[in-house]
Design a protein that fits this description.
CATH architecture of chain A: Up-down Bundle
Number of domains of chain A: 1
Strand content of chain A: under 5%
Distance between the termini of chain A: 62 Å
CATH superfamily of chain A: Cytochrome c oxidase, subunit III, four-helix bundle
Number of strands of chain B: 0
Number of helices of chain A: 7
Number of strands of chain A: 0
Order of helices and strands of chain B: HHH
Order of helices and strands of chain A: HHHHHHH
Oligomer: heterodimer
Strand content of chain B: under 5%
Radius of gyration of chain B: 19 Å
Helix content of chain A: over 70%
Number of domains of chain B: 2
Structural class of chain B: mainly alpha
Helix content of chain B: over 70%
Radius of gyration of chain A: 21 Å
Largest sheet of chain A: none
Largest sheet of chain B: none
CATH class of chain A: Mainly Alpha
CATH topology of chain A: Four Helix Bundle (Hemerythrin (Met), subunit A)
Shape of chain A: elongated
Shape of chain B: flat
Amino acid sequence: MENDIAIEHSPIHRDDLGSKMGMWLFLFTELILFGGMFILYASYRYMHADDFKVAAMRLDTTVGTINTIILLTSSLCVVLSIAALQKRQKLLSMYMLIFTIVLGGAFLINKYFEWSAKIHHGIYPKGPEMANFSDGEVLYFGLYFVMTGLHALHVIVGMIFLAFMLVFVAKDKLTYDNHQKLENAGLYWHLVDIIWIFLFPLFYLIH
Amino acid sequence: MEDTNTTHQVSYGIYILVWLGLVGLTLLTVSVSGLNLASLTIVTALTIAIIKSLLVTNYFMHVRTDTRVFKVFIFVSLIMFLTLIILTFFDITFRAGGK
């Protein structure tokens, strides 16, 4: 059998390409998860174009822009961490991972304050302020909470995923010639970034 | 046989350039959204978002230097997603009293 031969040749069998393929297949299921919601957003926006514009005015573009830049920077840090590990700069790789996790935390803190402000003003599903809203505005905020909420959940999962990678790098379980796990964690983090790249203009920049 | 357990190395500089491009495009999309472009607003916003995600996938996710199978993977799944969008909009626009 092919597997037996591989085991004979090296004590630990590794298939980086297969591992990466598995990660990409998982990422496509995420595309379907978020994609379905983007289609729902597109349909409702098509039906309630003016209400969506009115509702979007209630979001703070500055906070959204800052969060976009935070996530883009965190993506840069992950990719630098992988490059550093490849160049055998273990410490730099670890610092970059720590920085990524810190930026993920900063994103979530911003999101927390943003959501709190909305909830404080009575804007949440079945909230008191929502009673005065038109159907389109209610749909907009329903989608806003579900989509940014699910995205924030992905940020949390990504941070946990990266924290494990940090431990692995520290313990030399991931090295310059064995770093596919870190690469996969990076792929996940970038996907979360790409989802935000689309969420940001669709929710914050409608005028 | 090709060794699949090696990866392409890229220098730090190119990543920082890509990041600068991404931040620049973010600031561009924010400032353009302030202009009154009517129906072009959504097209502009989505075009910039697509360019940004192409930068992320090609450079940060290393698809540019990966084996071709990943490009095929992504292409096929995006075509499928596009089909879902188009079919949904056929339904909305042709449904009687769709508004």
